[in-house]
Write a structure and sequence with these properties.
single chain, 255 residues, TIM Barrel, 4 strands
């Protein structure tokens, strides 16, 4: 199946939305620049997709990220390890997909000029932590906007701190997740560690939603309470233990 055929349903969705919302409505799309997996979308295919999307029109913002649930990057080293052999090594800086976004920004503007379509803004999500790194990426036209994921799960005031002129050297918190290294050793499957990290950050959001501060000392296993009713499970285990103990005691006295 060609890239154009794969994008056909996307174009139909864009057109349907545009036909029902005012022109001022901002319509955004999130795309992978690479699945970082064998057989997944490559950076060349992703760039081709972006060109066709810009040529079609109707999109105001394109967010670029990468990876999948089975190969979820949590560092720039993860991205570089997953890239195909012989591919261009990522340039310096903290962001994950700079090589791609620099090229994408140029192509978006070029296609928009050639077709007369509006030029969508490009957002790069992945790896940004320092104010200096974000400002440099925008100044060098590597991206138009900065996307933040995990750091925002730890501090609801994060954006205000990044923009504060009194904090020129501010850097987003990037704490290690307690216990992930141990699980990676016990179960050497990459998705296990990445999955625990995702659940750990999800638990921080649960805490803040309940007006509590993030718990950076919470272990990877402890954060499972974000998706499992651990309180009920513990109560159930305690009840079962008490029932078994009572049964054993009754058996002892009757035998």
């Amino acid at each position: 199946m060609s890239n154009l055929n794969r994008l056909r349903i996307l174009f139909e969705i864009i057109d349907a939305i545009r036909s029902t919302v005012p022109a001022s409505f901002c319509l955004a799309i999130k795309l992978n620049c690479s699945d970082l997996s064998e057989g997944g979308v490559t950076m060349e295919e992703a760039l081709s997709n972006i060109k066709m999307i810009v040529s079609h029109g109707g999109i105001d913002l394109i967010e670029i990220s990468g990876g999948t649930y089975s190969n979820f990057p949590t560092s720039k080293a993860d991205v570089e390890l997953s890239e195909a052999k012989g591919s261009k090594k990522s340039e310096g800086g903290e962001a994950y997909y700079t090589n791609f976004t620099k090229e994408a920004v140029r192509e978006i503007r070029k296609v928009a000029e050639e077709t007369g379509q509006p030029s969508p803004a490009l957002m790069h999500t992945g790896g940004f932590r320092s104010r200096r790194g974000m400002a440099t990426a925008i100044a060098q036209q590597e991206t138009d906007l900065i996307g933040l994921g995990r750091p925002a799960c730890l501090d609801p005031s994060l954006c205000a701190k990044i923009l504060d002129p009194l904090l020129p050297h501010f850097s987003c918190p990037d704490p290690p997740v307690p216990g992930v290294a141990l699980w990676n050793l016990l179960i050497p499957v990459r998705i296990i560690g990445a999955g625990f990290k995702t659940v750990w950050y999800t638990w921080q959001l649960h805490l803040m939603a309940d007006y509590q501060p993030p718990d950076l000392g919470c272990s990877a296993l402890g954060s499972l309470r974000a998706i499992l009713p651990l309180g009920k499970i513990q109560a159930g285990v305690a009840f079962m233990g008490a029932a078994i103990a009572a049964a054993l005691l009754a058996w002892h006295w009757t035998s």
